[in-house]
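Predict the 3D structure for this chain.
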Amino acid sequence: MKNISILGSTGSLGSNTLRVIESFPRRFNVVGLSAYKNVKLLAGQIKRFKPACVAVKDEAKAQELLKLIGPGRVKVYTGQDGLVKLATLNEIDLVIIAVVGSAGLLPTLEAIEAGKNVGTANKESLIMAGKLIAQRAKKKKVLILPLDSEHNAIFQCLQGREKKEIKRLILTGSGGPFKDKKKETLSSVTPEEALRHPRWKMGQKVTIDSASLMNKGLEVIEASCLFDVPPEKIDVLIHPEAVIHSLVEFIDGTILALLGVTDMRLAIQFVLTYPERLNSTLPFLELDRVKTLTFERPDYEKFPALKLCYKAAKSGGTAPAVLNGANEEAVDLFLRKEIKFTGIVQVVKRVVNAHKRIDNPRIKDILKADKWAREKAIKNYELGIKD
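Done. Predicted structure below.
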């Protein structure tokens, strides 16, 4: 029986993690769950999985939760301290980091310090402090298991292989909802249009990032940190069928690819059961129905976010944290219809260009850079730089 704590259990990935756990009732025990605002869904999860403790946004949400479940049923923690508490409980074997945004950084670091293996889909923490996270994990001899399908695929393809054998990593992406849309029409797209992803059902922020291909760029930064590979050895390919989740090319010319159904539960189950593989309740991939697999290079002119991310990855230091913080704020502005879709990258670019990078940053430097980037992004908007 493996004891699990899930930070962000009411989101898409967190909810799907619980669906996988439900398929293996004798294998997993849910010890901790957290939600930001959706206490109604959290209350249902508490009744179903009976965790020892939970965390919510603040005291008001805690009181709202207690009205739904009654007192004495579970320990309730709040805020960032609550997330850290859930990530460091003595009895847990694996922490699933499924929260969105920079809120995942400190719980990830504290989980590692506590000697816990971490399954993460929180790309923001890896982008902000990926090298620091990797260094601490190596020192503490704990595993960082990627939950995103692309990095999970690369992780699996690299099992038993040496880093010196890698020629390049190839991240695949469906191309998002605007793959075939003309560049000059992108400034007029709405949040509703950008949220209609052709393949994946995800949270709002990551779906908007997928529409701009910012998501692929952020994944390049993640992959560089997770697998200790320079960004110039990481390529992005558009693969609309979303059957091949990513590939690794080796120095002898061999390419290993991981194929599977388009369902995030495939990667989730691998992380939960690692290093074992268990029978899956998911549909299996039927290659005769796939018929064709197509690939094309991304249009860097139409989707400039990719180029911006490569630049930040090569710069290193606090540059990725600044890019990430500015992007979070810019995406929020777009979702509120205060800037255009094309304004997202323009705001981020201005913030990144104004930043004075710090090399080999400490955690306080990273957090300071993140805060500065967010304030600068808002200031750019307030000054009228909207597209």
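The longest strand covers residues 166-173.
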